[in-house]
Amino acid sequence: MLCLDTSDGAAVAVLHNGQTLAAARSDDPRRHVEYLAPLIVGCLDTAGITASDLTAIAVGTGPAPFTGLRVGLVTARTFAQARGLPIHGVSSLDAIAADALAEQDIEEVLVVTDARRREVYWGRYRRDEANVVRAVAGPGVDTAAQVATDHADLVEAGQVIGRGLALYPADLAGGVSEEERAADAVVDASRLGHLALVRAQAGVTQPTEALYLRRPDVHVPGQATGR
């Protein structure tokens, strides 16, 4: 399986039978087009396979800014269509939450990422009795202050992760140490792929529609705004 995410930089991984054969990322938030293809080629080479060996595609669906997210989705869809492969969409917030809940001894977490415009994308997640990570609120986009108010229990408990934590520590840091705030929680493409596999085996539909959550920053000249 080839796994892609461009919600924050560009992340690529190749999985085989649930094992990660190769993974790479670029943290550049704007040059997705330049970096994504070389990362894919590099991961395939490292894994010792070619595109014809792939059996499925997993792609992050955001939420994220319009332009970067579109690069990953278009690449994944084109790749899948050209090869006749199934494609699975996974929320980037889901992947971050699954990573955190697998590594920490907690049952619930609030994921906050950079939405620009002085806002954050957010999602609240819980690990249930069957050890399955589920969204219990969100995804949404709002100011850090409003998100902190709405999820004060997790903020106070220090159960908040993501880039939004370092961007808005006064609102979201709670009991999180300065060192933990500085540690970026970004999408692990391998984790995203594992989630896609688990959900596919359970028969869960995984659409690839983008989670923009608001209108794109760029509009076609002369396009009606609906106002």
How many E strands?
9
CATH superfamily membership of the largest domain, which one? Answer: ATPase, nucleotide binding domain
Distance between the termini: 44 Å
Alpha plus pi helix count: 9
Computed CA radius of gyration, to the nearest angstrom: 17 Å
The description of the largest β-sheet is: 5 strands, mixed
Residue share in helix: 25-40%
Number of domain units: 2
GO molecular function, one term: transferase activity
InterPro entries: ATPase_NBD, Gcp-like_dom, T6A_TsaB
Pfam family, one: TsaD
Organism: Ruania alkalisoli
Structure description:
This protein has helices at residues 32-47, 66-83, 92-103, 144-150, 152-157, 163-167, 169-172, 178-182, 189-201; strands at 2-5, 10-16, 19-26, 57-60, 87-90, 108-116, 119-127, 133-142, 160-161. It is an alpha/beta fold. It folds into 2 domains: 2-91 and 187-201, Nucleotidyltransferase, domain 5, CATH 3.30.420.40; 92-182, ATPase, nucleotide binding domain (Nucleotidyltransferase, domain 5, 2-Layer Sandwich), CATH 3.30.420. The strands form 2 sheets. A 5-stranded mixed beta sheet has the order 3-2-1-4-5, sandwiched between helices. Strands 8-7-6-9 form a 4-stranded mixed beta sheet. Residues 223-227 have low confidence and may be disordered. GO terms for molecular function: transferase activity.
